[in-house]
Every structure is written in C-alpha cells, then in structure tokens.
Amino acid sequence: MSSNLSRRKFILTAGATAAGAVIVNGCSTGLNKSASSGASSPAASPAANISAADAPEVTTAKLGFIALTDSAPLIIALEK
Q1: Based on the structure, what is the number of domains in the chain?
Q2: What is the pLDDT of residues 13-50, one digit of tens each?
C-alpha cells in the first residue's frame, strides 16, 4: 500500500494540529473546583520565606561572547 501523505503535508498537518491545540487550550474557560464552587477569587499563595543564606553566592556576573562558537551560525549564513 502506498500513501499519498508526503513529508511536507505531514509536517504541515502536525503543525496545524499543534497550533490548534494551543489555541483551544488558551481559549478554554479554565474552570476548576474552586471556581465551580462559587468562590469569586482564588486564595492568594503565601509569600516565600527567603533568608540571607538563600541569597546568590555571586552578586555580579559578566556575560561574554566567544567569537569562535557564538558567531558560527552568522558566519555560515554570510558565506551562503
């Protein structure tokens, strides 16, 4: 049996299905047990207790650019 489903058509169909699922999920009402029980607003979550010991060890960070590896896609695109 041969199938008329090409790779391009499969990718297009899978992408459309994924996009549709995201849109449907985003447009849902989002009802849960607390909302259906008549509560007008959800309870606020408690604030996190953070002590000085939980602070980051390094307060400053330097970000760099390694020309050899970070620019490789740009150089390849320029050559094409």
Answers
A1: 1
A2: 999 999 999 888 887 766 655 545 555 556 777 777 77
Residue 35: CB atoms within 10 Å: 13
DSSP of 31-80? --HHHHTT-SSPPPPPPP---GGGS-S-S-------HHHHTHHHHHHHH-
pTM above 0.85, yes or no: no
Residue 35 lies in a domain: no
Closest alpha carbon to 42 in 50, 52, 53, 32: 32
Residues in the chain: 80
Full domain range(s) for residue 17? 1-30
